[in-house]
Amino acid sequence: MSSRRTTAIAGSLVATSFSAVMILSFTASADDQGPGSSKGGKVIDEAPAGVKLTTELPEKISVNNSSQETEITATVKNEGTKDSGKIQLLVVGFDGLTVKNVEGCSAIEKNSLPEGSNSGFACPVDNLPAGDSKSYAVDATYDLGKEGKICLPVQTGDGKKTYWQQGPVPFGTTNPSPDAPATPLLLGTDNKPVAPGADELPKTGLGRDVLPLGAAGATLIAAGASGLWWSQLRRPRRSQEA
User: Fold this and answer.
1) What digits encode the pLDDT tens for the residues 195-239?
2) Is residue 145 within 8 Å of residue 198, measured between CB atoms?
3) Cβ contacts of residue 14 below 8 Å, gap of 6+?
4) Which burial class, exposed, middle or buried, applies to 203 when counting CB atoms under 10 A from its CB (0-12, 13-18, 19+)?
C-alpha cells in the first residue's frame, strides 16, 4: 500500500471519528439545562449573622418553537452556617418570558406584581437549614419574538426585607433557529428575536438598565404573602380603592 493511499485512509478515519464525537456531544447536551448559575445576583438587605442566601438558574434552557413552552429550575440556597428561618422565594417573569406555574407556590395577583412584570409566584419556605437548598420546577412560555427576563428575589417571610435578588436577568440567543424543534437560550444573553426584521422592533417592557440592582432601587417588597411592590425610582401603583 502506497504512503499516499495510507494517508488518505487515515484522514478519512479521523474525519469520521470527529463527526461522531460532535454528534454524540450534541445529543448528550440537547435536553440538559446545564449547570446552575447565580449570574445577575446581588445582596440587597443584610441577612442575619450566619445566614447566606443565594439563588441559581440553569445556564441553558430550551424553548419549544411550536408551543413556546419551556421548563426552568429555580433554586434557593443557604450557604451560611445557621438556619434561615422563614423566607420566601419569588419567581417573576418579564417581557417575552411568562411564568405559568411554579410547583408548590402561589400565583401573585396581577395588581400586586412589580411594575413591568407579567407574571409571578411566591414560594414560602418555613426554614432552610445551613448548607441546604430547595429547588422549584418552573413552567413558563417564551415568546421568541421578544426579549425575556426572569427575577428571583429571596425575602423574609413577611416580605419586609430582600436578602438576595437575582435579576431581572435575560435568557436569550443571538442565533435563533425557527425551523428547529426547539431553540436553546443562554442565561445572561439578550434575545435576538426570531421573526424577520424583529430585531429592529422597539423593545417591550422595561429596559435592562431601568432596574439596576441596589439596596434602595431594586428591592422587591411584599406586603404579606400575596403582595409585591417594586421600588425603583418610581411610585408604587395604588390600588383602585385608594
Assistant:
1) 554 444 344 344 443 333 333 333 343 333 333 434 332 334 444
2) yes
3) none
4) exposed
